[in-house]
Amino acid sequence: MSNPANVKAALRSLEIETPSWAYGNSGTRFKVFAQAGVPRTPQEKIADAAQVHRFTGSAPSVALHIPWDRVDDFTELAKHAHDQGVRLGAINSNVFQDDDYKLGSVTNPDPRVRRKAVRHLLDCVDIMDATGSRDLKLWFSDGINYPGQDDLRDRQDRLAEALREVYDRLGPHQRMLLEYKLFEPAFYATDVPDWGTSYAHCVELGPRATVCIDTGHHAPGTNIEFIVAFLLRAGRLGAFDFNSRFYADDDLMAGAADPFQLFRIMYEIVRADALSSGIAFMLDQCHNIEAKVPAVIRSVLNVQEATAKALLVDRDALRAAQLEGDVLGANAVLMDAYNTDVRPLLAELRTEDGLDPDPVGAYRRSGYGERVVAERVGGQQAGWNA
Ligand code: LRH
Ligand code: MN
């Protein structure tokens, strides 16, 4: 087993980016349950994200979504974030909520609509210049619902053309994260449905185009850690959108539904010594019925615990068993680490770093939740309309 000191050192390098939209109201097509104290502005979302970092020490950045987080002065917003003890992270584009995009955004048969979509993506790069963000995260809801509705090949050509224009606009220190999703809202063919399609477009574009793996965007039973291992080997794994699911894109707390899968994913990261190699470890979740800030804190802890277990894998013993063809032995080495209770080690690390060993409890005891309920009265709550 790896020694605790090395594990702690590696864990201290783990940075998890939280999504601004996780702090706003969310739900399903059936109902959005509004919660008291929910932020009303990007500034208040950032204040909530800062609480997650305050109690975990591992969530120093917050991803924005445009236009959900549009402000007049993004440089000022970056300063606000800094004053709160965090920084602005990935800029997420949104070409999935405009009537013009019914038949697609960058893949739409209508060139006027494609121009409009590309214009938005280029605007997002302008915002990155103002916020100092490195990553432009692109997710396209583009797809079709019926065979024949549009030409699959033409849509790929349109997508490639748009991605090329945006890629060429990126600054030298900026990256593109191309996120894929199997289905929804399209229910027959999605234009970026899987890692292979994203990877192929990234290779066509250039070295600063990388794949974003949203753990909720695969067919049931997909071996996500295989995709991780493959993209790491190819040098094209740019980011994760961590969440968990029992069925589809449920966007539940990372590690809640399948902590073993999260461990297997983080083991491939550790095995590739990629914990602090520039991969963005982001959360992409919605807290439809649970209190939002403590849910995000819990999710950060779940990623920390999966990572700590992965760091405890006895790599030499595993390698030896693998090379000997010792099937049971090799599996046992991995399971030993997974079955190790790492909570005492993490509590020790937090205490050493001046943090409360129980971040969720510490947040609850802080009274922040009650305070914002009292302060945030009136105004339009952020997120999906209740
Ligand atoms: C799409 C997605 C994408 C975001 C959105 C909030 O399902 O995962 O990452 O733009 O959720
Ligand atoms: Mn996502």
UniProtKB/TrEMBL annotation:
Gene3D superfamilies attached to this UniProt entry: Divalent-metal-dependent TIM barrel enzymes (3.20.20.150)
Any GO BP annotation: rhamnose catabolic process
InterPro entries, per the entry: L-rhamnose_isomerase (IPR050337), Rhamnose_iso-rel (IPR013457), Xyl_isomerase-like_sf (IPR036237), Xyl_isomerase-like_TIM-brl (IPR013022)
SUPFAM superfamilies: Xylose isomerase-like
The keyword Thylakoid appears for this protein: no
GO function terms (MF aspect): L-rhamnose isomerase activity; metal ion binding
Keywords from the named record: Isomerase, Manganese, Metal-binding
Family matches, as Pfam families: AP_endonuc_2
Domain Xylose isomerase-like TIM barrel positions: 72-249
Keyword ATP-binding: no
This protein's name: L-rhamnose isomerase / sugar isomerase
Gene source species: Parafrankia irregularis
